[in-house]
Amino acid sequence: MKVFVSGLAGFLGSHIAERYRDLGCQVVGIDNLYGGSRHNVPDGVRLEILDCLDRDSYKDILAGSDIVYHCAAAAYDGFSVFSPAYVYRNTVQATVEIASASIAADTGRFVFCSSMARYGALPAPFTESQVPRPSTPYGVAKYTCELLVSNLYEIHGGDYSIAIPHNIIGPRQRYDDPYRNVASIMINRMLQGLQPIIYGDGSHVRCFSFVDDVIYCLEKMGTSPLAIGEAINIGPDEGAVTILGLANEIASILDFDLDPIFVPERPREVSTATCRADKARRLLGYRTETTLRDGLANMVEWIERIGPRAFSYDLEIEIPRAITPATWTDKLI
Ligand SMILES: NC(=O)c1ccc[n+]([C@@H]2O[C@H](COP(=O)([O-])OP(=O)(O)OC[C@H]3O[C@@H](n4cnc5c(N)ncnc54)[C@H](O)[C@@H]3O)[C@@H](O)[C@H]2O)c1
To answer: What is the domain range of residue 83?
Structure first.
């Protein structure tokens, strides 16, 4: 079986690739390295440094794929409020290019990685039957991608499924990016002896999945007939935690004397983002195997091994305003 992964050098893409490589499949993929790293790509997997936007460049690599996982994205929720054009290009435009190329090449199932951001500030826990009402450009973009994928596949035929993951944690997640991945940022700072920065009062509620639990579902979304044409929440509906609780958990793993720095809330931050996982349990046999603490400990171990890093402010803020977090404009993280 041949599996194609866009965003192969990223966090999720590299884990999907590893899973299918271990199953004995031929795994190929592309990445423009905007957010990922060559070091993430598992041995035995072919990476081409190409951009999803450049459709002609990867037509041949895509051809003959039995499953296409589209993970490539500028996965920035809060930051998309200030750099929507960058996020739009690398979500919506990237998705329509990959979907178009996949349909033209008559590949097998197309699995799109959406995001819980599609739900915005709807009442939690989110269920798939709620009509999405995203509250950030990133959420709008992800939901637009879902509509594009389902529309194109319904018109032209072929199988697709849509995964809607929560916040995911685990090794290979970028931890020097100041614009996303709250748990990684906190670990990276605490390992440098710095207090975590918390937007608001720390009462925002989130759920985190360890990457292996997500990959278990994503693999089934590529192969199970039950997942065809379905949009499925992927994340636990137990173990919700506040952002302050998350900081406490990491501090306790690191034996760190916690005294967080509280800064103003970011615009469009959703207060509670939790979901129901009934559909994933029913269709994919979803279960939580790794607790939040064990998942965080695993990620701490990985970041410690590679070493903490300075944060890299390599993205342009397209709309600098008074409400743009000073953590970004003044590079405070
Ligand atoms: N990690 C999470 O917590 C999470 C949660 C929900 C949804 N998702 C979704 O899952 C997918 C993977 O996320 P991730 O955490 O692995 O992010 P990531 O940044 O680690 O991986 C995305 C990869 O896509 C690449 N990329 C971006 N734009 C590209 C383009 N135009 N052409 C080619 N490559 C491009 C980046 O270089 C990066 O390696 C994304 O679509 C994201 O929206 C992630």
So the answer is: 2-168+210-234
Distance, CA of 50 to CA of 122 (rounded, Å): 36
Give me the residues paired with residue 96 across strands: none
DSSP state of 131: P
Pocket of ligand 1 contains residue 94 by CB under 6 Å: yes
How many domains, the chain?
2
Q: What percent of the chain stands above pLDDT 70?
A: 100
- Flag whether 214 is in a domain: yes
The answer to whether residue 322 is domain-embedded is no
Sign of CA dihedral 163, 167, 169, 174: positive
Residue 102 counted as domain residue: yes
Q: Are residues 73 and 217 in the same domain?
A: yes
Question: Measured on CA atoms in the order 296, 288, 45, 146, is the torsion positive or negative?
Answer: negative
State in Å: Cα 60 to ligand 1 middle: 22
Model confidence over 6-55: pLDDT tens digits?
Answer: 999 999 999 999 999 999 999 999 999 999 999 999 999 999 999 999 99
pLDDT digits (tens, 9 = 90+) for 63-78: 999 999 999 999 999 9
- What is the CATH classification number for the domain harbouring 303? 3.90.25.10
Q: How far is the CA of 91 from the centre of ligand 1 (A)?
A: 9
CA nearest ligand 1 atom 34, residue: 31
Whether residue 75 has its Cβ less than 6 Å from ligand 1: yes
Q: What separation in angstroms does the CA of 123 have from each of 136, 206, 262, 333?
A: 16, 13, 26, 31
Q: From the CA atom positions of the chain, what is the Rg in Å?
A: 19
Closest atom of ligand 1 to 14 CA is 16
Does residue 53 have its Cβ closer than 6 Å to ligand 1?
Answer: yes
The answer as to whether 296 is a domain residue is yes
Distance CA 308, CA 123 (A): 37
Same-domain status, 224 and 142? yes
Can you tell me which residue has the tokens 């199932």? 109
C-alpha distance from residue 15 to each of 120, 171, 206 (Å): 27, 9, 23
Give the domain CATH number at 124.
Answer: 3.40.50.720
Distance from chain centroid for Cα 180? 10
